[in-house]
Each structure stands twice: as C-alpha cells, then as structure tokens.
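New to this. Please check this record:
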Amino acid sequence: MPYDESVPPTRRRRSLLAATALAAVCLTAAGCGAGDVGGGTRAEPRQGGGGTSAPPPSKSAPAPEEEKTSASPTPSAKTTKPSKPTGGGATGPLSGKTVVIDPGHNPNNHLHTGEINRQVDIGTTHKECDTTGTSTNSGYAEARFTLDVSHRLRALLQQQGAKVVLTYDDDRAYGPCVDERARIGNEARADAVVSVHADGSAVGNRGFHVILPASVRGGKADTSKIVEPSRDLGTRIAGFFVRDTGSAPSNYVGGNSGLDTRKDLGGLNLSTVPKVFIECGNMRDPKDAALLTSSGWRQKAAQGIADGISSYLNG
C-alpha cells in the first residue's frame, strides 16, 4: 500500500491478452515501456481498501515461520541517514550503477501516529509523513514484508555489482517521511529507485501492479524528466515479475496491464530520478496472502524486481 496514498484507483478495462502481450514484449524487446499505459488518477473508493491504512497487526500474531530478516538495532527517532551504500565494489553487469530500494512503511509507525500524521510538502499539496501500511488477516505486516523483499533484492543486485542504498533498514523509530524517501534517491543520484509495497484491498482482488509517475509540475514537483524512463523501468519490472513469480497482473487496478499511473504520491512527485512503486499483491485476499507469507515466493518476487531493474539498467 503506497505510504502516501489518499486517492483510490479508477478501474480501467483491458483484456488479459494485453497483459500477456506486455509480459512477452518486456522479455524479448529491448525497448519495452515506450507506449502509453493510459494510467490516470484514482477517483473511486478502493474496493475493500477505503484508501486508508489498516490497523496495526496484533502483537500476538507471529511472523511467517519461513520469514528471515536480519537483526536490527533498537530503533531511534534520531536516526535520519539511509543505510550505507553496499555493493558496487564487485565486478558485474551493474558495476557503476546505483540502485535505491525503498521498503514501504515502517513496522513501528503505529507506535508513532502523531509523528507520521504530520503534514509534509509533496510538491503539489501536503499529505501525511507516512502511514502504517496494511497487513494480512493473520497479522503479517506489510512493513515486515517490504523489508524482507528489500533485503533479498539488495543481495541479488549486489551480486551483479550494483551499489545499493536502502531508504531505511529497520533502524529508526518511524518513517522516513515520504519527502525524505524521495530525497534519499535524489541525493544518491540513483540510476533507478524502486519502492516495495503490498496492497490492502477486497477479497477477490488479486495480482500485482507497478505504479508509474504521472506528468506533474507544480510547487516542488516536476516529473517531466523521469516520466518516460520510469515507464520503461516499470514495464520491464512488470514483465519479469510475471515470468519469475507466475503471478498475474492486478485484476482490479490497471485494466490487467500490471501498470498504473499516479499523480498523488509524494514519493514519485518529488523524485528527480527514475522511480516506480510495486504493489506485489493484495494482503487481504487469502490466496495472495498465502504467496506473500511464503519465503520461497518472496524470493521469486525479489528476483522478478531485480531482473526488471537489470534489464532497464543494461538497456
């Protein structure tokens, strides 16, 4: 669930054949992503999601048995720096490239509602610093999911020689705020930024979608230089995500294309480098939740994102 989401999606109808063709193009053509995906802004209430953050997961709900995340120091609200860049020293196809991974939300946000409800400038308007994110019905938090996938993704990119920066690594009490998340990517002069999320929608709403930046210009926001490269990045990720995970594009956002264009997300509006979000599945649907809580599937998800990033960076 995008951490600065407030306007739910407009549903668009496209045939599943179009999504299949999209995946095939992304896997075979070097220039995929040039076409218009016809995104648009969200205007209707999200089915079952309501466009708001889910309540914090129950403290008694255990994380999935197979989940493996690295140990973290005690969070501190004073921590403001992103994780130190890692990788980049090894040789490989991504040597010399910088990738910023943005794990959506923070597991401790629900303990700091005052701080995360603080309004920040997202370029065209003001929105909350961050939100709590969603969770599965069993209590597996989106923020835990995003950290796990981000760790796996970092390892895969490092193996290819990329320098990898995380916007945070479970090392702070809450946040970062959405404007800081964008700033970290900008200051790193990242070649690509991917914000990792999972959605919270109605039962029966399934599949993944990649969110692309719309053309926005106003206040501190100007996405004119990143719209096209971000579309290329997002389309490649969508194609490889289909291949590596076996998951279908969302059946409730993006008209079965796996792509959605948004102009209400500060993390995209304030970015000056190519950036996309990926909603890996719907945590509130039991079938999608079974995937999201599987360690094996999360590895496939990380592989799909990594392969899409590699395809984009290698041209």
